Amino acid sequence: MATIKDVAALAGVSVSTVSRVINASGYVDNKTEERVLAAIQTLDYRPSRVARTLVTRRSGTIGLILPDITNPFFPEVARGAEDEAYRHGYNLILCNSDWELEKEILYLGILRQQCVDGIILVSTKLTEERLAEECRSLPSLVVIDRTITLDIHSISSNNVGGAVLATEHLLSQGYRRIAHIGGPSSSISAQQRLEGFRQAMTKADLPVEPALVVEGDYRLDGGKRAMARLLAMTPQPEALFCANDMMAIGALEQLNEAGLRVPADIAVVGYDGIALTRYIHPRLTTVIQPTYQMGERAVQLLLETIKGNENYQHIELEPRLDIRESSFRRGEP
Predict the structure, then answer these.
(1) Where in the numbering of this chain does the HTH cro/C1-type domain appear (predicted)?
(2) CATH number of 4-56: 3.20.20.210, 1.10.260.40, 3.30.830.10, 1.10.3470.10?
(3) 3-state SS class at 16
(4) How far apart are the first and last CA of the chain?
(5) Which of 54, 166, 277, 318 has the most CB atoms around its CB within 10 Å?
């Protein structure tokens, strides 16, 4: 295997000149650079990533911590991040925290030990105080899917506004007894979507019955269990707004098992806009988040910080409502 000394000897330059060419640091005239690059190609020289990290203090890697890789929402975030990282010559290291605080902290430490250049974090458990503490020893950081007051880049979707869109749509169809299956109470996005639901109901002069608001866990089984609780009520709800699509699909399964028709007996609206919602029956009305763009923009912000730009941004993207068959009284848009 060729070494940097072999490249220097073939190109007729010093080792330090080869290093400057490889790391794009310092001046090297065009003819010398061409000789070095030709030598690298001839010898098929591949610089040691470890050695480069020690010299440049850059590893060319970005860490991404997601809470649930089985939820199709998060792979879409990962795809946007990976595509943008690849365009800029970076690799992505993926970690799955399973919605657990201990795993979030563990993976932050592991990525720090791996000398990643930056971290993208989707966190529902870390408080701002703990996050500020962790940031003291972390490289560049971007937080996704939650608003934050720290001097850290953050990207979120307008969860309150998206929930208002979903609820107002159900109200426009004439539904009044509307239930809500929310996410974990510790989740900022779940809190915001519940707030949007409350705002829309209050604006319509309708009460939010505590019994019609059930906490879920953003997972299929959680949505199914929550729907079973709602169906045990008398009278049953006329419509349902779920804080994410996975719980909405779980709720649809429970409704099917109970012999209830959607939307003839009960209307259902989800949140996130995962691809699966277009292929179930009936097709699920959902609030679509700009998921791919969130991952893509997160990498862009990281790279700006790595370059020394510390003008931190708190970006809020707008979701949109995609109305399909699951939420119309007659089942026809």
Answers:
(1) 3-46
(2) 1.10.260.40
(3) helix
(4) 65
(5) 166
